[in-house]
Specification:
Mean pLDDT: 86
Largest sheet: 7 strands, mixed
Radius of gyration: 15 Å
Structural class: alpha/beta
Distance between the termini: 33 Å
Length: 201
């Protein structure tokens, strides 16, 4: 990372020859690389390139996850994507739960230059999630204010049976998107982090 933080990532170059977009997928708080592969298995199987970054404090990496630190790590991942040959314009930024917040922030930090974004099962802000996310309460991850500024095409996905982050969060975020932003909301009959094959649809 730019602050000397050791980072890691898994990369599948894919097998397609039609200059497909690279999906950069950010996993959630309880996840790691393996969790990321569950959500992206459909893309990988279809021959699309995928980059799965790991960040400080996760997957055995040193460091403490903070909003500022995780945002640096997300930008480092997008820099790697460019080094691998994918300009921001041909990058899809995706994430689940905390990773959805990271994806939304990474998109903003990159000047909203991306092919699009997919945000899955994400909260409006951490203070709204106080019962679950006290470990990060010094941080806000104010997704609601970022959603209101998002002009990049975005697909919002949230499960109806999500007990960890109620899908009202997803609907509030989606409603906050500007009217002109190309967008779609996909409701799936699933809980917070199971039945990954549905997410891959």
């Amino acid at each position: 990372g730019t602050d000397g933080q050791p980072l890691a990532a898994w990369f599948w170059p894919g097998s397609r020859s039609d200059n497909p977009p690279l999906t950069v997928f950010f996993h959630g708080n309880a996840g790691n690389f393996e969790d990321s592969t569950r959500y992206t298995a459909g893309l990988i199987a279809a021959g699309y390139p995928v980059l799965l970054p790991e960040y400080r404090g996760y997957g055995g990496l040193p460091g403490t996850p903070t909003e500022a630190g995780l945002r640096l790590d997300a930008q480092a991942a997008l820099s790697v994507a460019q080094q691998l040959g994918w300009p921001p314009e041909n990058t899809l930024i995706a994430g689940h739960s905390l990773g959805g917040a990271l994806a939304l922030h990474a998109l903003q930090d990159q000047g909203q230059i991306a092919r699009g974004a997919t945000i899955m099962s994400t909260f409006t802000s951490l203070p709204d999630m106080a019962g679950v996310a006290r470990w990060l309460m010094a941080d806000r991850f104010d997704n609601l204010s970022l959603a209101a500024k998002t002009v990049t095409p975005v697909v919002w996905v949230h499960g109806t049976m999500d007990r960890l982050i109620a899908n009202t969060h997803g609907h509030r975020l989606f409603a906050a998107l500007p009217e002109a932003t190309p967008k779609a909301f996909i409701t799936i009959e699933t809980a917070h982090a199971d039945r990954h094959e549905i997410y891959q649809g």
